[in-house]
Amino acid sequence: MTNQKYVGLDVDQTTIVAHVSDADGGFVMETMLETKPKSIQHFLKSLDGTVHVAFEEGCMAAWLYDQVRPHVKEVIVCDARRNKLLQSGSKSDKVDAYKLTRLLRLGELHSVYHGDRSIRDLKELVHTYNTFVQDKTRTMNRLKALYRGQGIVSRGRRIYDNLTKEDWMKKLSSEAARGRAKYLYDQLESISELREYSEKAMVKEARKHPVIKLLMKVSGLGEIRVSQIIAEVGTPYRFRTKRQFWTYCGFAVVTHMSSEYEIVKGRRRRRNKPLQTRGLNKNFNRGLKAAFKGAAVTAIEREPFKEYYTRLIDNKMRPEMALLTVARKISAIVLAMWKKGESFDNKKLGKPE
Q1: SS (H, E, C) 108-122
Q2: Residue 275 confidence (pLDDT)
């Protein structure tokens, strides 16, 4: 098609470097913009023809996507980790913008999904909740490390109880250590309270999406995990098959092979047992993987997944692989239910493959 424009944006907090090429890769222009809506929109409107834009995923990506999308034909927010050309050679704002433009024109960019605004609020609240959960875990680990450093056994969760924390602090040998413990206890109490507030806000927002009631019928999935799944997935129609969804969740099995062929009597022949390693894909959505693995741990404690898990173990499958299989099964069920709008039917669980 004629009159195609390809725009690469290297985004900074205050400035944006824009590189523009035509359909043949010819240089059109290069400019610097303020990171402000009016400046961005004025620049895009000045470009004639069909405009395609690309920029890297980052903390400003969602905001910039909303500013750019109404004014162009296509917007690709790319995952820089999967585009090696962005990491090779010299690096500067202009060079990065040029590389983005080139990869965009060649169709070599791997995009990161940015859903519509209907789930934007839920994504923010889920991110807030996850942050408080991580902060609480870090504080608890620091508190236990303090006691271990003093040679004090602190197994279990009793060390975190407000009713016994004074007794635990008395075990510390120095005033400085007791003072540090007090600060950590205060921090833990504050974070716990904030986590509860953020959980309520997240669940309240998730209840605005009717699919939450449907997905909660799957064993192992409660309001928190379903809220996280809705926020991360956005729409199930992004995934044509369950295997595509498994890749996104980090449940896809990948194989790395080497020395596949050998020369026998001057002719090439495939080896009977080529060197290969198998494992799960490493580029995935960590929030989704944690949600489905957590759901699997809960689900195998009761029917129908308890029997399903037991059959896997009886078939000589290792417990960690059996748990992974249950997580894959739950994710496949969620995708199918979400697409079809059907309730979970225990009879359709089937036998382990």
Answers
A1: CCCECCCCCHHHHHH
A2: 63
